[in-house]
Amino acid sequence: MVNYCTGMYHSPCSQHPLLKHLFPEGNPKRPFVKKPTTTGTQFKISVDSLMKNLVSKQLHYVRCIRPNTGHHARLFEPGLVQHQVKYLGLLETVRIRRSGFCYRLPFDQFVSRYKLLSPVTWPCSPCSPVEAVHAILHGLPIPRGEFAFGRSKLFVRSPRSVFELEEFRRDRLEDLAVLIQKVWRGYHQRKDYLKRKRSQIIIASAWRSWRECRYGITYQGRRHLWCLYNIAKEEYRNLKQKKLVEWAVRTIQRYYIRWKRRHFLISLAIDLSTLCDSPISREWPPCPRRLTETSLLIRRLHHKWRCHKYRMRFDQVSRNRMREKVTASIIFRDRKASYAKSVSHPFLGDYVRLRQNVQWKKMSLESNDQYVVFADMINKITRSSGKV
To answer: What gap in Å lies between CA 337 and CA 319, rounded to an integer?
Structure first.
């Protein structure tokens, strides 16, 4: 081709300007003539550019299956479709996809796309991409087994999970759109309201000025009205300040009483642990004047608890002995002169050891009565003669 173009420059027709413009490579005066690329080189260059383009993209293979050979609508040939599915290897591809992960995405891209699904990451994520992905997936009703974390990417096992993510994102986009509309409408209505309010104030002030000038109110009258207005304004301010002070006093007083009550209960709990456990003890910590009734109720409850605790120390025999003492106190107190001296001595009942007497044992076996209430040596006095 180069030799042919060079020969054309030496022919009589080579002086034609159109030929020189169409075939510049045939000019023999050119210092360098580039060799044209071959078909193999062009194919290699196109393949390299295609591979560079594919590497920078995320590939998705789409396989088209013809339902029939005649390209007719609403006609399905099962044999032809099965043949295409078999020889295209679709079943093997599906099995491989099921055993592995069908979708993968870098952490930052996943957060950028699905951050609106979690309140932790929306609108701005304060944590790292990996923590943000964990926060997003934690709030979604998708099993944890559907995801796997790599070094820089998140892997999704089934397409159903991907579709659910997109559904959640679509629903959330609608909610956010409604929220944006609500906020914008509120802002717009508030702005319109403030504008109308300013207009109303301007119109009202202008109308009052016109009314005063129209009905001929003198300067002294306007000055008097202005003084009355200032006085009323000052009175209103003082009344408002007074109500505020009263409210503050009530609030401080209420919180002070609560603090005082809490302080009293805490100190009472500490002091009660050091008091005497005796039921007859009358020791009790002092209390504030406002908590007198509360202190009396707590003191009564504490006394009952202390008595119950004191009673639980005794066994059944000691309780019976205590009941006997109480009964004796009810019977003999203030009636018997020697009762006060006998309180310190325990009541035995059998002072002569009657249970060890042979005659008593024989008589008790015959009558089947072995219970002795009281037995002692006494001097019997005859009433008629007074002799012992």
So the answer is: 26
- The answer, yes or no, to whether residue 293 has pLDDT greater than 80, is yes
Task: For 1-39, write each residue's pLDDT tens digit.
Answer: 445 455 555 555 557 777 777 777 667 676 655 667 788
Q: Are 347 and 324 in contact (CB under 8 A)?
A: yes
**Pairing verdict, β 103-106 and 147-149:** unpaired
List, for residues 339-361, the tens digit of each pLDDT value: 777 777 777 777 777 777 878 88
Tokens 């995801």, residue? 147
Contacts 24+ apart (CB under 8 A), 327-331: none
Residues in the chain: 388
Q: For the domain 100-215, what is the CATH code?
A: 3.30.70.1590
Q: Which amino acid is at 114?
A: Y
How far apart are the C-alpha atoms of 123 and 132, rounded to whole Å? 12
**What is the C-alpha separation between 167 and 162, in angstroms, rounded?**
9
Q: Cα separation of 309 and 278, whole Å?
A: 10
Instruction: Give the CA distances from residue 63 to residues 68, 90, 93, 124, in Å, rounded to whole numbers and listed in that order.
Output: 15, 9, 11, 40
Task: Please give the Cα distance from 328 to 289 (Å, whole number).
Answer: 42
